[in-house]
């Protein structure tokens, strides 16, 4: 009896419960993708690394090789000079970190931390109670973010579709018509991304007369694909019941990472010019590490699996000796002094200091060669002749 009474309504009742079930499935809180959690853990501090950290260590080795004297520097800061307030005010701290990383072994740069007014440093030196030990800086670095274009390019692509199961019935409601019994499904899918640029200018001047040194400057622009997103929507109508579903997944990158990278590149250029060392050796491959690594791995596998590994050992000994990590003979023997020097090299470059020749160590020794313009292992000679002398990302930098 009940079934006969409710019989005409069962499709609508079933549609109602189906809509409830779908709504329940979509009510869960969105989960952060695993790869994002691994790159940005919430339970453990993580070192801030850019594509140019390895170039900073390369510069340190380069200045060890050339035995450069120490430069005493100060800075008023690397400020954000644009109207974009999302750029960090911590440029000076980023500069200090970059200088520290590139002078660990060489001691080629000594940063004198002082206030914002460079002119007061000389007054402080005269009045300092321990002025015999106080060393006023000789030079100062100044600069800032001069251009920001977060909307250099943006794009969206998408598509949509609909499917009608039942057109329903149009009935006259007097004042207006009423559509009843309609059953349809509609959906859409879209992708979007954004691309922007940041420019940083830096220069150097003398503390004594506050004059900027001609030719000792850096101006670089770096781009960032800062946003990437996906959006999905769906609508289901069954008679008088309806269900809507939406899904969005957007990842945004911070332009301050670009700011830090540009400070690192500018610091390498400026210090390299001041010390008159071939700093471009450390920048030549910094912007193309990932593309070169695949070809280099093939060469590493050839040398690493050969019966006679003396060629690989001689390469490692030569690279370590050139950078003054190893003081022994290049004899093709993987002896204790070689392994000890290799451990020191790995530790300095932030690698696992095993003393073994792994691919990451092999890669660094060939991509960042402070003592020469060509790699130790010729695996991309043809490509090398076409490679730019400055990193691909630093579009405006020029070798001085």
UniProtKB/TrEMBL annotation:
It holds the Pfam family PG_binding_1. SUPFAM superfamilies: PGBD-like. Coiled coil: none annotated. Residues 314-365 form the Peptidoglycan binding-like domain. Residues 1-23 form the signal peptide. PROSITE patterns: PROKAR_LIPOPROTEIN (PS51257). Keywords: Signal. The keyword Transmembrane helix does not apply. This is Peptidoglycan-binding protein. It comes from Nisaea acidiphila.
